[in-house]
């Protein structure tokens, strides 16, 4: 059921998370298994499974999420260098089927590290 992922449980406060920000439409939490010194997730409260499932109805929400990425990067002091990633589908590395934006920073990312096998 798309509304019952680990992120829906975090949104409903059924399991704990390290919250950095929350408003009516989204939350920002620390990733539990960080891949960089800073690794946070921007998550809409609306349970859109994948970016490819978003529709024109989600235009304002998607804009809000992207602007929140910039806000959080500035607040965390990483706005000079950070990477944003959205995995869409299992073959792209998506493991939680509730849309989320990864923000990673604090290490040097190689130019070619977006390659997929
Ligand atoms: P995906 O692989 O779907 O793009 O990203 C899912 C992310 O959620 C991963 O980076 C993973 O470490 C993170 N994650 C999985 N379970 C939990 C959890 O219970 N709490 C938090 N904060 N992050 C989680």
Ligand catalogue: guanosine-5'-monophosphate
Q: Give start-end ranges of low-pLDDT stretches.
A: none
Major sheet size, sense and barrel closure: 5 strands, antiparallel
Tell me the domain tally.
Answer: 1
Can you tell me the CATH topology? HIT family, subunit A
Q: Would you tell me the structural class of the helices and strands?
A: alpha+beta
Radius of gyration: 14 Å
What is the level 1 CATH name? Alpha Beta
Quote the beta fraction: 15-25%
> What is the 3D shape?
globular
> What spatial order of strands do you see in the largest sheet?
1-2-3-5-4
Secondary structure tally, helices: 2
Distance between the termini: 29 Å
Report the helical percentage: 10-25%
The sequence of SSEs as H and E is HEEEHEE
Second rung of CATH, namely the architecture: 2-Layer Sandwich
Q: For this structure, what is the CATH homologous superfamily?
A: HIT-like
Mean pLDDT: 94
* Quaternary state of the chains: single chain
Count of DSSP E strands? 5
